[in-house]
Amino acid sequence: MQLFIGGACAGKRDAVAARFPTAKWRRLDTDKPFSDSQQALVADTPLVINGVLEWLGASLEHDDNDALRQQWQSDIAALCQRAEALNAPLIIIANEVGRGIVPMQPEQRRLRDLNGWFVQDATAQAEQVWYVRHGLVMPLK
């Protein structure tokens, strides 16, 4: 798996599209679990998953951060295994939201925490991690 992370309008989508022109794109559905992404995998076809921040926003109604994390850690691992079995490169695009102003609203601070944990967990599973800023792509891992 590869993870592309960067701020809003940093050029993440363009960078991924240039590297994976034949990729199938899937935006996470806020009403469905991350594990549903397995259905979008096609043999020998890269799969790009985006919409992570919006998907995490739908999780704010659940109070148990640890349970959420355990679930998506398991889902990411299973998705990576399935993608490898199908020889389908997996790419996740995530937003960097930890460098801005800390919001006053508790739910917005929690969303940033969830996003940070998701990115850490995705990074742990990723073979490569790229940071995109101003259209420049820098390898982190």
Could you walk me through the main structural features you see in this protein, from its secondary elements to its overall organization?
There is one protein chain. The chain is of the alpha/beta class. It has four helices and six strands, in the order E-H-E-E-H-H-E-H-E-E. A hairpin with a 2-residue loop joins strand 5 and strand 6. Helix 3 packs parallel to helix 4. The longest helix is centred in the middle third of the chain and has 21 residues. It starts with a strand and ends with a strand. The mean pLDDT is 95.
Summarize the helices and strands and which ones pair or pack:
Layout: E1 2-6, H1 12-19, E2 24-27, E3 47-50, H2 52-57, H3 65-85, E4 90-95, H4 106-125, E5 128-133, E6 136-139
Parallel strand pairs: 1-4, 1-5, 2-3, 3-4
Antiparallel strand pairs: 5-6
